[in-house]
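Table 4 source record.
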Amino acid sequence: MTARRAGAAAALALATLAVACAGTARDPSRPDADDAIVKVRTRFKEASLWVDGRFIGPIGGLPGGFALEPGKHRFELRHDGYFSHYQELDLAPRQRLELDIELAPVLP
């Protein structure tokens, strides 16, 4: 393969990747009309919420909940000294959901 063809192939691969990723990147501060809204309640306001492996924030910073695209998502609530809580949900478009989560302490 010539250097010119290799360069063209690399440019095509990058363009394909850019097009494939364009649909997945969205501004989380601007929810879609079809997004589900999830509100997590726990007595630990400093507990951290993770969704699909991404840090969302401390529960105390999410009083109104947060928006997610419809579909399957994996929730994890973490707090030092307590077992993490895991939950998988299949969210419908425009669904409103409130989760009450209690964390169990790690025994010494």
